[in-house]
Known about the structure:
By secondary structure, chain A is an alpha+beta fold.
Amino acid sequence: MSHGNMNLTLKVWKQKNKDTKGRFETYDAKGISPDMSFLEMFDVVNEQLISSGKEPIAFDHDCREGICGMCSMYINGRPHGPKGGITTCQLHMRSFKNGDTIVVEPWRSAAFPVIKDLAVDRSSFDRIMSAGGFVSVNTGNAKDANNILIPKDDADTAFDAAACIGCGACVAACKNSSAMLFVSAKVSQLSLLPQGKIEKQDRVLNMVKQMDEEGFGNCTNTGACEAECPKSISLENIARMNREYLGASFTQNKV
Amino acid sequence: MGLTGLFLISFLVVHVTLNSFIFFNDGGASFNAGADFMAHNPVVRILEIGLFAGLLLHIFQALLLTLENRKARPTPYQVVNGGANSSWYSRSMGILGSLLLLFLVVHLGNFWVPTKIAVFSHAEHDTFAGMKEVFAQWYFVAIYLVGVISLLYHLLHGFQSAFQSLGLNHKKYTPLIKKTGIWFSIIVCALFAAMPVTMFLGIIK
Ligand code: HEM
Ligand code: SF4
Ligand code: FES
């Protein structure tokens, strides 16, 4: 063990699939470098488990640089661990102390069934997107980018909303398992721009309907989502979606 | 939730204003005049039905909301560090509301029921005297203080939350709404709390 390396105890949720009951399993993580990411620490533990003939811990990951949103882990009572504004892959072991016990759980929500251990199925988010998270365009040659002028402020606000990576930390953090921050970011990024305004009424009604059908809970404005979002998506998006939803419900020209 | 909550808040404004008449400390003369007006005015009678409907609707919405939210997380977390991302009272609206409901049962029993009995039997009724009688008992004072503290925290979250739920979040107005909510909750609850306390201590005679 080189200088400054840490020994940790992990309490990790193990679950075979969505139909079985899970339980906590305790693992020793020995000789962990403080410069490793949280996922690299899991890689080391899994290597050791595999070489001793045991089953490794299943977890999701892809980009390992904070842009894909796959690395869902609920660490010591917080999504993506103790630091704000980052994903689990961006969390480093120096955020913990030698000898710490770390409890790692999957996102827990009826709409995110566990696939295995820490990996959850977030296809409910995909179905919400299919319900309205798009603009309908005729294909053909790409139009000149400046054909439609867009105020800088609108472009910036839309871009801030578009920073959402669909990780689901907002749902995991919320005591109600509400997906309002995610859905409102997707509604906002489109409805703020001229191309998205055309379908904005149908979009918000359909996406919210799908969100409810997936079994996410109701927003009570605790603000936990905004505080835990790795991309700092703002609660203003939720208010915008509420506004659009109320407006569309009252004025939509359909029965 | 937001609409019914704001409606209940509008009632609080009237309620706390009228009750503050006791602070004139004139043996309840102004207060009883006000209470008498409220008890017999037909417009107020209709508003009272609306108030009960609003309260029941608010409770019904709260129940539905709580049940749906429970269903949305069938397996609870082992470790939750809620304090890291939200205030305890924003996460405890259901419990605070239930405490309020328990308080309201006692409260209506103390004042609303005797007034109704008096109005229907066309008897004279001295609400102020009734108030002094209730607040001579230390346990009623304690129950009222618990009720008022629950109200304080329910409003500290609820006031600003209602605007967000209705879609009002604006860089210019939201800070103002939040400040107004905090001051409103503190002032209303301080006035309400002062009533049983001053009467118990004999400051209001
Ligand atoms: C009778 C007992 C009551 C119960 C059981 C109750 C319960 C609740 C619950 C569960 C919520 C939703 C949680 C949330 O949005 O964070 C809520 C919200 C709220 N309540 Fe109550 N409450 C009660 C009485 C009151 C009273 C007396 C008032 C006003 C004076 C009030 C004002 C509000 C407001 C403004 C909200 C926020 C609405 C929103 O977030 O959209 N409540 N209540
Ligand atoms: S809003 Fe934030 S926390 Fe929620 S899915 Fe998007 S990036 Fe993740
Ligand atoms: S692995 Fe892609 S965000 Fe963490």
